[in-house]
Amino acid sequence: MVTVTEAVVIALLFGGLFFAFVAAVGLIRLPDLYTRAHSASKSDTLGAVLTLGAAAIALDTGVDTLKLVLLIVFMFITNPTAAHAIARAAADQGIEPWTADDADPDGPADGDPADAGGDPDDPDGAVADGGDRR
Amino acid sequence: MSLVADALLTAAAGFMLISIVVLYRAVKGPTMQDRVIAVNVVGSNTVVVAALFAAATDTPGALDIALVYALLNFLMSIAISKFTVERGGVL
Known about the structure:
Shape of chain B: flat
Distance between the termini of chain A: 47 Å
Structural class of chain A: mainly alpha
Largest interface: A-B, 57 and 54 residues
Strand content of chain B: under 5%
Number of strands of chain A: 0
Helix content of chain A: 55-70%
Oligomer: heterodimer
Shape of chain A: elongated
Largest sheet of chain B: none
Order of helices and strands of chain B: HHH
Distance between the termini of chain B: 44 Å
Helix content of chain B: over 70%
Structural class of chain B: mainly alpha
Order of helices and strands of chain A: HHHHH
Radius of gyration of chain B: 16 Å
Number of helices of chain A: 5
Number of helices of chain B: 3
Strand content of chain A: under 5%
């Protein structure tokens, strides 16, 4: 028989794993540094916080739960701040955001050798060109 | 407690698999900041795995490790994003 505490812990673990998985999919699949930062800051923070909440419920001694609550608050503050700092550093370096014009109309960008090679006349093209991403 | 411990350890294994998948972006990914974001995600997954380990095996010392690692992870992201920009006014 499953008690209420066990059911809550397992539900929170499922939620946390789901959001961490969504963050990983966004980090792999999204076209741009800025969209990846969005995925990493939001979904990954929520997944980590849900899972830490599950651990906090599973550990029911006072000091350990206090440490986990501290960790949750800390995650909520620092994870989006770090992503913001990274994205701002990228913006200061002049990396252009991906727009719909960068999308390859002929299909996935992986199969296009002209795009994948990068252009020699544009030294910044390797970082700024949306078509060069994977 | 056994069911909860098993669930916590399984979730920790899932987080490790997700970290391995995210390493693809850290290896591949075309700009410096992509790598920093991927390493940041791997670090926060590591914090979660340490906390889950502490809860599953009832070793509260791992919680201190998780706290310190979360601090170091944040500091790493801020430091790298400051060092990659010349003027350094990131935050």
